[in-house]
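S.,

As promised, the pyridoxal-5'-phosphate run. Input:
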Amino acid sequence: MSQDGRRSARGLIRPHLNDLPPYGAMESVAAVAKELGLDVSEISKLDGNENPYGASPKVASALGGFSGYHLYPDAGQTAVREAVGRYVGAEPEQIVLGSGSDEMLGMAATLFLDPGDALVNAPPTFGMYEFLANIHNARLVTVPRREDFALDLPAMERALDEGAKLVYLASPNNPTGNAVQPDEIERLLGHDAVVVIDEAYAEFAGESAVGLMADHGNLIVIRTFSKWAGLAGLRAGYAVVPTDLVEIVWRAKVPYNLSVASEQAILASLDDAETLLENVRLVVEERERLRQRLSATGWVRPYPSAGNFVLCEVRGIAARDVRERLRARGILVRYFDEPALRNCIRISVGLPRDTDRVVDALSEIGATVG
Ligand SMILES: Cc1ncc(COP(=O)(O)O)c(C=O)c1O
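Predicted complex:
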């Protein structure tokens, strides 16, 4: 009991949580706009790998016309599982949906990680995997990528042979943009461990590991409607799981975890997949124009990307300063300066006018450095 007589729950917190590093979430665009004295529409939001074309217009109609918000969702997710199964080329039984792929990544950790179990992580990569290791009090086995961001497969295989249970791999990888090759995934699948392939950006790459599931019972593929279908704000993701895990997944999952709004939005998006995939094509085209224009600056060095973002090494100025100077102009990007990723910025692909704006701003910034 504290001096004022109030009880506190602070001392009862699971001890490992006291050491959690804070999760580096994005700034709120409304707060940034307010600080800069701009309207939200004047911000080029290129820090979240979101879809500049937004959701399908069919989503707004479906949500506006829906009359069942007062009822709980179908706990069995029947209609969405069928639609998603058809879309992704898997049996509806293998599909489980949730609040973004983040929730599904967490579900994989819940299924396999006891405290002390080892999880293999290959940075630089999406921060969620390390976050999940920390939350579950798992042992993080870090196997850094090579200079060109390819996986260090022998080291990863060694970690699996030494007893690691789970490996998360984003393909294409965020923030580096490169995809994992099917033969690399198959090598990892040859070990007594679970391989989770995070395909948040798969539509932009046009590749998927779902086909490997027919021959491998230790592969889970996780995907999302956030990026290609523009539903990041609604939170709609899914996992494709091996058939013999399905029953336990449903016993371990929070019931009603997919809201009716997400359910309706997913069905409407799949109904309009052709339009959305055309938007994906436009983003891919714009990505290449962005890369070309960035290369032409001379001091911003874009890496190849199979996603909807471009990682760039910046020369002659700190990446953090570049990020700040862009931010002051209403352009939001991410920056990285850590052992695995020195002096880089990551620019999400926006509309053509965003490309022009960010490249023009970078040219101005470049003119002020030697
Ligand atoms: C590799 C990767 N996986 C998953 C996610 C999370 O996606 P969702 O919005 O479906 O939770 C992101 C988001 O940026 C990501 O980059």
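The domain at 10-53+274-367 is CATH 3.90.1150.10 (Aspartate Aminotransferase, domain 1). The two ends are 60 Å apart (CA to CA).

- D.
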